[in-house]
Amino acid sequence: MATPLMRFLVLALAFVVSGCATTQPDAVLRGDPLDVMFLQMMLPHHQQGVEMVALAEDRAQNEELRMLAAAIEQTQATEAGTMRDWLTSWGEPLTAPPDSHSGHGGMRQSDPEEVARLSALRGPEFDKRLLNVMIAHQDDAVQMARWETGSGADREVKNLADRIDKSRTAQIGMMKKFLDRA
Question: Which residues form the DUF305 domain (predicted)?
Fold first, then answer.
């Protein structure tokens, strides 16, 4: 009859033999493929968002919109730094090869031509256009974040995704109110 100590030793030996007991000190940690994919998709999305809201500083007429845009710019720049740090620490590239995520809905970004059109506008026209573009842009972030919270593995990445979901949902609500008043 096997004693509890004997069962423990057999189980411990099985882990050692299978390589599950410990990580080698010189091994490169790698992120879960789904978490990596989320970060590689979200990073350029954030960078594009930062680029668009930065335009509001000298183009937006609505002071509240300028303040929201500055907050979005700071938040997304900080989050992008965190994403870069995780990918780098895992030894993963910051971007994936082109079309590598097409089976998962592809990269969700605003149309680059739309971003170019934004930079040509000022005042009330800019405000309305930025709000419409950013509502769609932030909704894409919410959808990607919800996918990560349901499918990802890394707790920190899932926590970031949850914060993105909540903050972008709140931003969309604010932007819709701004549009109603425009």
Answer: 35-179
